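During the second year of the project, the team shifted from modelling isolated chains to modelling whole assemblies. The rationale, set out in the original proposal, was that interfaces cannot be judged from single-chain predictions alone. As a representative example for this report, we include one of the complexes processed in the last quarter. Its constituent sequences, exactly as entered into the pipeline, are reproduced here:
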Amino acid sequence: AQSVSQHNHHVILSEAASLELGCNYSYGGTVNLFWYVQYPGQHLQLLLKYFSGDPLVKGIKGFEAEFIKSKFSFNLRKPSVQWSDTAEYFCAVNAKSTGRRALTFGSGTRLQVQP
Amino acid sequence: GAVVSQHPSWVICKSGTSVKIECRSLDFQATTMFWYRQFPKQSLMLMATSNEGSKATYEQGVEKDKFLINHASLTLSTLTVTSAHPEDSSFYICSASQGNTNYGYTFGSGTRLTVV
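Output from the structure prediction step:
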């Protein structure tokens, strides 16, 4: 069964610091990859997604992620975080070839940006 | 963009009663709905997948007789927690998909269920 690992459970940064959140998945076939953000009290929102093509994906709010197939990774990055980026971030995977359409989520990373 | 409306946002019920949670796609047809459960500080765990007009497919360990899912139309899916117990207290989230996964997934805002 596929699984998703997010190794950083809680990250604290100062404003303007750079961010990189790790995401690794365990599935050998073709995957769709997603990063979602959940602000306090709000629903999950899509930051970016990768289906195919350019492995460097740009999303909303200045976020980007790079798919490295050889490392089974899809790390999220932002060059300069803002206080408003404080939220929970979830990496998710859908294994295309299994026919399973649901997403498998990582455990989430809580990002706290200090002003 | 696509919007999924989930109600109620929170509910408190007595042990032994049933609670129904609704999930509506407002501006698109959701051929597939997914129901997740999220425990505090943990990830979303898939409970079941439902296709419009078909029986839901439940994940291993999820009691289908306890968590009744109905997906009678392309815009509405419901999750009924029957004979709720305190251990059913959790955050329940629905997600809707239009077609193949390239359409992406839209999430509801979640329902906080507390069983007392």
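Residues 106 and 115 of chain B are 27 Å apart (CA to CA). Chain B is about 0% helix and 55% strand.
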